[in-house]
């Protein structure tokens, strides 16, 4: 397992429901990009051990930053299929939410996604990934039960409390 920590200041462009995002427009967020092979549930547990939740990607700037880093660092070469992110529609089909709360302000689905593909699992696909074969555009993926779909993940950790955030 190789963990890369990157920090950036995210300009949050819409109002989120969680306390951390209602105080300031500028929040220091640390993204842990973890290559390896994890199920969705394993990724959630491993991310929690790092003090975070599977990542939310609030805007194109953040998306570009993360995917460019994945490419440049070579971490993308170290995963079979991609990286889990916090997006999912497990509670209600086709109603995608971030696992740590907040509105879905921005998406970057690959062509034809999300398709809730049921070919290999009748429950369909409810968990979000940055998919390797589409240059890390977004895809809905089987959450469980398909061992070959284990992947890396991106974990989001608040780098500081908002009241103590440095000025960007
Ligand atoms: Ca689905
Ligand atoms: Ca899909």
Automatic annotation (TrEMBL):
Record domain C-type lectin: where: 31-143
Coiled-coil residue windows: none
Xref: InterPro entries: C-type_lectin-like, C-type_lectin-like/link_sf, Ca-Dep_Lectins_ImmuneDev, CTDL_fold
Top-level lineage group: Eukaryota
Signal peptide limits: 1-20
Keyword Methyltransferase applies: no
Keyword annotations of the record: Signal
PANTHER family tied to this protein: C-TYPE LECTIN DOMAIN-CONTAINING PROTEIN, LITHOSTATHINE
Name of the protein in its database record: Macrophage mannose receptor 1-like
